[in-house]
């Protein structure tokens, strides 16, 4: 998390939207074997929690229930060149959007996991458009076998630590040049956030 308060946000609706839109993150926890991370689809509950599932054999699975863990959601990021500044006699930087969620984890029961899986499938199938795939297309015996291989979790967020580093220290004219440069060089999502989220 960047220490500059300019890059913070207390807008919970915005933070929930970031989780909803990005939909993927990393879960960190220190186990007796050392620090571990898992990369997971995330589903915000809308009431201050996020849900995810792990393979039963994942190094984190047996350690998360009742633990305090960290979830990190990374948004768009990009290199920012001094060529877009008024004064080029400086150094490059990196603009990015990231959200750290610290909280208590509980293991979900089978009904909760089933609900989570169907919600994730419905959410991401809808984003693809066209004819959606349905979990009912998977034979019951196969679904049951795969279901037994995963574990669902919910993290109750106790601390929200966002970083929205979008060149806020620059003038409006410089920020527009940076946004244009980012959009032109492969980072349109970051450019759009720069234009809409920061003054």
Terminal residue distance = 20 Å
- The amount of helix comes to 25-40%
Q: In the CATH hierarchy, what is the architecture at level 2?
A: Roll
Structural class: alpha+beta
Give me the CATH superfamily: Electron Transport, Fmn-binding Protein, Chain A
**Tally of DSSP β-strands:** 7
Overall average pLDDT: 95
Count of individual domains: 1
Count up the helices.
6
CA radius of gyration is 20 Å
Strand order of the largest sheet: 2-1-5-6-7-4-3
Give, in order, the helices and strands: HEEEEHEEHHEHH
Shape: globular
Kindly provide the name of the CATH class: Mainly Beta
> The CATH topology is what?
Pnp Oxidase, Chain A
Main beta sheet: strand number and arrangement? Answer: 7 strands, antiparallel
Uncertain stretches:
none
- State which percent range the strand residues make up: 25-35%
Would you write up a description of this structure?
This protein has 199 residues and is of the alpha+beta class. It has one domain (5-197): Pnp Oxidase, Chain A (Roll), CATH 2.30.110. It has helices spanning 12-22, 61-64, 110-128, 140-147, 172-184, 188-197, and strands at 24-31, 34-41, 43-44, 49-55, 68-80, 93-107, 150-165. A 7-stranded antiparallel sheet has the order 2-1-5-6-7-4-3. β1 (24-31) and β2 form a beta hairpin. α5 (172-184) packs antiparallel against α6. It starts with 11 loop residues before the first helix and ends with a helix.
List the helices and strands and how they pair.
Elements: H1 12-22, E1 24-31, E2 34-41, E3 43-44, E4 49-55, H2 61-64, E5 68-80, E6 93-107, H3 110-128, H4 140-147, E7 150-165, H5 172-184, H6 188-197
Antiparallel strand pairs: 1-2, 1-5, 3-4, 4-7, 5-6, 6-7
Helix pairs in contact: 5-6
């Amino acid at each position: 998390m960047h220490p500059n308060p300019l890059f913070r946000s207390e807008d919970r609706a915005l933070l929930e939207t970031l989780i909803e839109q990005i939909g993927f993150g990393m879960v960190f926890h220190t186990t007796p074997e050392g620090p571990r991370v898992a990369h997971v689809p995330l589903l915000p509950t809308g009431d201050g929690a996020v849900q995810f599932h792990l393979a039963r054999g994942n190094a984190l699975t047996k350690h998360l229930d009742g633990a305090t863990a960290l979830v990190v959601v990374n948004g768009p990021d990009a290199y920012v060149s001094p060529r877009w500044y008024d004064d080029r006699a400086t150094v490059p930087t990196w603009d990015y959007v990231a959200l750290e969620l610290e909280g208590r984890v509980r293991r979900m029961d089978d009904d909760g996991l089933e609900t989570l899986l169907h919600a994730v499938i419905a959410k991401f199938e809808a984003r693809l458009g066209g004819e959606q795939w349905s979990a009912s297309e998977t034979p019951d015996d196969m679904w049951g076998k795969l279901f037994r291989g995963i574990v669902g979790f919910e993290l109750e967020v106790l601390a929200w630590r966002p970083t929205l580093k979008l060149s806020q220290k620059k003038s409006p004219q410089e920020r527009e040049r940076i946004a244009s440069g980012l959009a032109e060089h492969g980072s349109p999502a970051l450019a759009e956030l720069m234009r809409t989220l920061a003054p």
